[in-house]
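user:
I keep going back and forth on a fold encoding question. Separate attempts, laid side by side, tell us more than any discussion would. Would you put together a sequence-and-structure record for a protein of your own picking? Write it directly below this note and I will take it from there.

assistant:
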Amino acid sequence: MGKCMKSRTSKISYLAIAIAATLTNNIAFAEEAETNKTVEKDSGLEIIEVTARKSLEGLQSVPVSLTSVGSVKMAERGINSITEIQQFSPNTTLQASRGTNSTLTAFVRGVGQDDPLWGYEPGVGIYIDDVYLARPQGAVLDIIDVERVEILRGPQGSLYGKNTIGGAIKYVTKKMSGDLEFDLTATAGDYNRQDYKVAGKIPIIDDKLYVGFALASLTRDGYGEFLQSDLSGQDSENYNKDVFAGRVTVEFTPTDDLFFRFNYDNTVDDSNAKGGYRLLPSILTEAPVPDSVYDSYTSMPTWNKVEGEGFSLVAEYYINDTWSIKSVTASRDNNSKTNIDFDNTAERIFDVPAIYDDTQFSQEFQLNYNSDNLTFVSGLYYFDSESCGHFDAILENLGQALGLPGLTREVTGCNNSESYSLYGQGSYNLTDKWSLTLGARYTQEEKVGQVSNGLIFGTVYPETDWVPGYERPEGELIPEVLSGTEDWSNFTPRIGAEYQYSDDMMLFASFSQGFKSGTFNPRASTNEEAVDPESVNSYEMGIKSEWNDNLRINATAFYIDHTDRQFVTALPLPDGDGSEINQRLGNIGSSTATGIELDVEYAATDALSLTFSLGLIDADFDEVISYLPDGTPTDISDTYNITNTPDTTANFGVSYEIESSLGSFVINGNYYYRSDYVLSPTDLLVTQDGYGLLNFGVNWYSEDDDWTAALHWKNVTDEEYKIGNYGFVAEDGNGGYLPGTGGDQTLIAYYGDPSTISLTVGYHF
């Protein structure tokens, strides 16, 4: 405890020193500017606009710790997926979840959600424009005709509501104006990568009615292969990609005061199921540890199917120069059929075929005010979702060892929610220097949970023909074990103060709250009660500053208190006398995190720019309550870990522009570092040591900007790093392992992308 507090105090002290130095330097710069006003600046910083507070503002005027990466920077860096944005945002993890290609694991400042099973709510909110994505399935978004991606760090409860206790990620698409435009790009790379994208806008009525579209076909062979399969005729590519995505947008501006935007998008991901890498040889089969971390074995089908679509209708009316109203109506559907071979052998030791089926509808009305001294955003929000799932844990080998035809644990169920919110947040200029921000949100939520769970003495799959020739038995195969309804209300305030020291420097401090929804245990085996929402209290102080139009330094210090964390452990039965203990979901944990975030951008010359970002965090569990068999409570926090949260994240980048008679060239590179981190909250069987990724790019633009070409080399040193795992073993105390579920030594890891090289050619007209 003393060591932990010392570490946190030290980090805060470092930031205080940095802020003091920044303030001192800025005073010096200001004094110099007063005596040398005629000095010409030969370089300048990019002006960045964001919608963090639901209105368009300059990055430097928003008292929030955030990262915004625009379309030009993403193209120059060769960013293809939202997961790559993590490299440029301190204290952030965005990765494909274990065993999947399209489900997102998101952590910001040590807050997120490890298990993407239906019913478990995420801790970081994902938004496409103004529309919330309720589930992580299908949230590994490819970058297709995107204006920018924003990462807001810290709870965003007042403006964005539930499940933003770690932060929010905004995927902002482009708005249309001007003349007819088309963009064509083609990318070829190793592993037979072939990406084709086309986007365009068509003015139907000049400056009034536009139709826009974007289409993308993204394919790649696997980084590895399934070395052995129990099923014939299976595609052996592992870590491959096969995605088709499309979007259609209609924008209508009948008058200067009225604007409509309709958007429809559809994505089909036919990438193969992702096989894991066995860290231990199988004791039940002859499967050794593969030579490549991207190779695997399987007894499952290798097909996967993820389909998602959505529409939204935005209407904005500007009543006058200060008042406006906005309506956002949206609906989304996602259906995922996936095969996860937990044991990664060619025998059915522990296989999990699963279905996730999610639908959601939302309606938001905003009333906004903007004047010289007051900016105010308020609204009403309605959200309705159905999140259902089905998985079969196939333990065929174990069943046959017991003399049975097979053995399957089947679990199905739904966690459906309906919520209403009223919110408002305003910033008022008290003086020319001081401003005050006050915000609050009240949310009323009802959740209905249903779970069926039971053993089947055979091998079953979710649907007929899941494997060739399989026919699922008719009727309900397992009993319903949980049925319940629960409701909660939450009040999440925000208060902040900003001091505009000069035109180029702002200091801010804030307190904010956020909550993650309560839920029913989707794996329940008894009629459990629902667990209450999680809560986060966050305290921040920071500075945003610029000097001489060529140096930008933003720094934030934060402290987070995270309570009522939801985990499964040994707890008394809900209706018992406290003496009968059972494994169930409960609000058992609390944790704290202290950290620092630093973003620096330096335009050294017209041609040379440097960037640096740094995240430091000290996150630990303070309490995790479990119960001994006799009903005695005990603190087991020393056995729990904050996952996917390195103590240090850092990125150093350089960009150099060369003008020539052949056009302009932009040469860039960056080095991204993550210190060691754990991948499981309850054991240290699989960890990831600190590592760095070196990336390099060369971009060419023709003189008329019609043609572009780019060569990108990512992970130059071919670093191997883990992004997920499954562990179904226990240490035996002698350096070995005891078999776990299914009777095998199942210790599996999933890895990030290897070294890749690609060439992209684009044409704009």
Residues 1-43 have pLDDT under 50 and may be disordered. The chain has one domain: 2-764. The longest strand covers residues 434-456.
